[in-house]
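ok here's Dihydroxyacetone kinase DhaL subunit:
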Amino acid sequence: MPLDAADLSALIGLCREEIELHCEHLGRLDSAIGDGDHGANMRRGLEAVYRERDAISVLPLPAALERIGLVLVMSIGGAAGPLYGTLLMELGRGLAARDLAARELAVRELDAREEETDFAAVLAVAVTAVARRGRSGPGDKTLLDVLYPVQAELASHAAPVRIAECARLAARGTEMMLARRGRASYLGERSIGHEDPGASSCALLTMTICHYFKEQAPS
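and the structure:
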């Protein structure tokens, strides 16, 4: 589904509301295995994006994603800022490069299924960039444990409701993982039994976006 300014502004608002609603929960998750500030940091980041929503929403999608990523890097702080920022900025750059190549080759407009495949490929590159930035991978108990399965579901043309459920279950699945990166890794086996806060916030944002697409999809 193409995103216009109204869609992007609405999504920014919904994501901000979702993080605000779960701010204390994210903080409790982080208190168990980290500094306890993930909820507050994410709220600060989403508030910063929300304050710029009018200027961001009128940008072309690639530029808007890059700007959101930059705002998150500057405002979230901690480990999450660079990871979320990298994801959004790489998505924006990837989409910009795709659009430029399409214009140069005078490629016809993609249909909905081709658009999904194209976006999934760009997302795969962005997720790899996040892994490289965090020097982590699948099973390390990070937000990547949500991003990898979500990207795979998107590549398989799964419906938004299925992608949302995948994100929820993936975040829950980090509970029994041993943390191998970040502050939680210092706890060793004591990190087992606690859901990763970064995976949780990533799932919340993914679910919010998916539910919006589901509601806006033509019946």
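+1. Residues 5-216 form a domain with the Serine Threonine Protein Phosphatase 5, Tetratricopeptide repeat fold (CATH 1.25.40.340).
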